[in-house]
Write a structure and sequence with these properties.
Elements lengths: L1 E5 L3 H12 L3 E6 L15 E4 L5 H6 L7 E4 L4 H14 L4 E6 L2 H9 L4 E3 H14 L4 E6 L4 E7 L18 E8 L2 E3 L12 E7 L3 H8 L1
């Protein structure tokens, strides 16, 4: 993959080093040459100094041949503009922008830019840790608005139906692992001792799910 990263802060530097170590062709752009000091000596990619949404700077970074583009500076507007230029002007197939402000994130998503909000993700994750003791989140989607949660079936959950642990639009059982084999459950499947039930749940409904399974 030929990747361009705009912003050599902590996130941009770590992302670039990891992707480079995995064998990807990485170019990182930052307006401050000193920012590149964050890159380790093992970084095998290129660095370009300049504004991340300047078309000439992006051309110098090789955007016309890029497969992916990530804007991860500290500025929401700068990230949005850079991502828009990458997507609309240069037709880069995979584009993502890091956004701090959750309200801006929603607006930018509606405009078609794939976004990651570290603020929303952190809030949802911390709230989940503080309020939940029964469930283990195995994956998160978007900025943490939806979680895939694992629930070990035991005690009074044995013999209940998957429909008992469902709420349309908020909680949805999506898979059961039973004796090492996975299958997609229908509403009438009986839960057995030792089953691992995978449930998709809105982060806002996680406490409700926990109350259902206690």
């Amino acid at each position: 993959m030929r990747l361009i990263v705009v912003g050599c802060g902590r996130v941009g530097a770590r992302l670039s080093m990891q992707m480079s170590a995995e064998g990807h062709d990485v170019t990182i752009v930052d307006k401050l040459p000193a920012a590149f000091k964050r890159l380790g000596r093992e970084f095998g990619g290129r660095t370009v100094t300049g504004i991340g949404f300047d078309r000439d700077v992006l051309r110098a970074a090789g955007i016309e041949q890029a497969d992916a583009f990530a804007a991860v500076t500290n500025g929401d507007n700068s990230n949005y503009i850079a991502a828009s230029v990458a997507r609309d002007t240069f037709q880069v197939p995979q584009v993502v922008a890091r956004i701090y402000d959750p309200q801006r994130e929603a607006i930018y998503r509606e405009l078609g830019i794939r976004t990651i909000s570290s603020t929303s993700w952190a809030v949802n994750t911390i709230r989940r840790i503080l309020t939940s003791t029964e469930l283990a989140a195995s994956a998160q989607f978007g900025s943490g608005e939806v979680e895939l949660t694992e629930l070990l079936i035991s005690g009074r959950l044995v013999g209940r139906y998957t429909r008992d642990i469902a709420l349309p639009g908020e909680i949805m059982p999506v898979a059961i692992v039973r004796r090492g084999r996975a299958f997609l459950p229908t509403p009438g499947v009986l839960l057995e001792e030792g089953d691992v039930l995978h449930v998709a749940v809105l982060a806002a409904a996680a406490s409700l799910l926990e109350s259902m399974v206690r």
